[in-house]
Amino acid sequence: MKVVVMGLGYIGLPTALMFAQCKAEVLGVDTKKEVIEHLKKGQAHIEEPGAKEYLKAAIEQGNFHVQRKPTAADVFIIAVPTPNKQDMHGSCDLSYVGSALEAIKPFLAKGNTIIIESTIAPKTTENYVLPEIEALGFKVGEDIFLVHCPERVLPGKIFSELVNNNRMIGGVTEKCTAKGIDIYRLFVKGELIPTTAAVAELAKLMENSYRMVNIAIANELVTIGNGLEINALEVIAIANKHPRVNIHQPGPGVGGHCLAVDPSFIIANAPTVTPLLQTATKINQGMPEFIFQKIVALMQQYNGQKLSILGIAYKGNIDDIRESPAIKVIDLLRKHTNYEMAIYDPYVDYFKDKKLAGGLKEATAQSDLLVILCDHDEFKQLSDTCFDEMQQAIVFDTKNILLPHPKIKQHVTLGNLYESNKMEYCYEQSVRNK
Ligand code: SAJ
User: Fold this and answer.
1) Which helix (H) or strand (E) holds 330?
2) CB under 6 Å to ligand 1: residues?
3) Residues 32-62: tens digit of each pLDDT
4) What is the b/e burial string over 259-296, where b = at least 16 CB atoms within 10 angstroms of the residue's CB?
5) Atom of ligand 1 nearest to the CA of 262
6) Among all residues, which ones are annotated catalytic?
7) Residues 71 and 3: beta-carbon distance below 8 Å
């Protein structure tokens, strides 16, 4: 079977390599010249455990090639970005999907299967992709098979989750679904769940919307606890002892290209019937402002001049800074204060062309306040020297990951905010400031 994968990013490259491992003839296509050049040299351009090894094996096996243009194939998989448009609700930008479709059109032939893996707005497969294919004279469901098969893998565990997670196979017709199941059965050990393209589109978006709303509940609980002087983290820990309760973890906000993006695809298509999704989005988007206000309150309380920021990636143990809440906090600090700031992230060397601190010692030297904005494993246990280097060992641990340490003068978390300089936070006001 010949497979063309359009888009060699966090999802496309691992997917292409999984098909190559199953002995399919795989052509990876990406428009970025440097991606093709890196891959041709056997260099994986994504930080993902296993990528280097799978790539090496595929190249040695000789059934994995990369180039900037597609060729004829049996299966075309589209795994390109679908960012938010800069419009009112951040609707789904289909320009990359459109370009990938245009690129494969000349090579389409009867019997081909087209699979959209990119996360897309509800009804996109039927209302946007299908007409493009039928305009070429093909009948979808008979000549060409069209499937939406969204990914649901966790960065950092992508290769194992691609194999073991179950997957929705959303065909435009039942025959399309059957084709999709035959294709993914090559490497997926998880359950292949037959459904329609429309259900698969909305289910994928709702998976991430469910998590986004639950994070918003945790974040709102923090502002409730701050006002009522009740430890929100203790409330979450106790409430989650209930067998059917799973309140998520609060933090400085929701980043990444999924939870911070997907719900808006639903909102944009159904703006008058999504008050919960819209409010939850705003609550999460208000967290950088909340964290910023607390930092200022702490710096005032301790008459601080320098602060250390630990972590700018959008989540722990990866290098992705897309939609990172940490960056939003840093931007607020730069815009509204003149604190000296040292920023350190073990996975990120440069940020907006500025070289970041080379290590923890450099980042904490002489600082009054250490703010943890990302749950990298490296930040879970800091050595004595980190605190010895500090002017004042005040810590604001927004991810609640740092183990207690005798040298910490004050360890502020999102649970005990009221024990230090209280800031009066008003959600409405913060949203108005947007
Ligand atoms: N976050 C919280 N509290 C939580 C959980 C997460 O504040 O309790 C924050 C994180 O810090 C981060 C953001 O939310 O800023 C999103 O993190 P995440 O790990 O929950 O989600 P993602 O964006 O890494 O979701 C990925 C996605 N897959 C890929 O990017 C390839 C998504 O499609 C998957 O559904 C998700 O993993 C998953 O866990 O399955």
Assistant:
1) helix 325-336
2) 10-11, 151-155, 207-208, 211, 215, 248-249, 251, 254-256, 258-259, 314-315
3) 999 999 999 999 988 899 999 999 999 999 9
4) bbbbbbbbbbbeeeebeebeebbebbbbbbbbbbbbbb
5) 33
6) 204, 258
7) no
Question: What's the mean pLDDT in 215-244?
Answer: 97
Nearest residue to 4 (alpha-carbon basis) of 97, 73, 105, 80: 73
CA distance 324 to 303: 28
pLDDT score at 154 = 87
SS3 308: strand
Q: What whole-number distance in Å separates Cα of residue 118 and Cα of residue 12?
A: 9
pLDDT digits (tens, 9 = 90+) for 299-336: 999 999 999 999 999 999 988 898 999 999 999 999 99
Give 130's contacts (C-beta < 8 A, 6+ positions apart): 140, 146, 172
- Dist. CA 209 → ligand 1 center (Å): 11
Buried b (16+ CB within 10 A) or exposed e, 42-76: eebbbebeebeebbeebbeeebbbbeeebeebbbb
Give the model's confidence band at 264: pLDDT under 50 very low, under 70 low, under 90 confident, else very high: very high
Cβ neighbour number for residue 416 with a 10 Å cutoff: 17
Cross-strand partners of 25: 2
114-167 pLDDT, tens digit per residue, is 999 999 999 999 999 999 999 999 999 999 999 999 998 888 899 999 999 999
What whole-number distance in Å separates Cα of residue 65 and Cα of residue 59? Answer: 7
Residue of 154, 233, 320 with the most ligand 1 atoms within 8 Å of its CB, for mutation: 154
144 DSSP 8-state letter: B
- 8 Å CB contact between 108 and 129: no
Give the residue among 139, 142, 134 at the shortest CA–CA distance from 176.
142
HSE-up (13 A, CA, CB side) for residue 24: 24
The two structure tokens encoding residue 402: 């740092």
The minimum-distance atom of ligand 1 relative to the CA of 150 is 33
Mean pLDDT of the chain: 95
**Contact in structure between 420 and 408 (CB atoms under 8 Å):** no
pTM of the model: 0.92
434 has pLDDT over 60: no
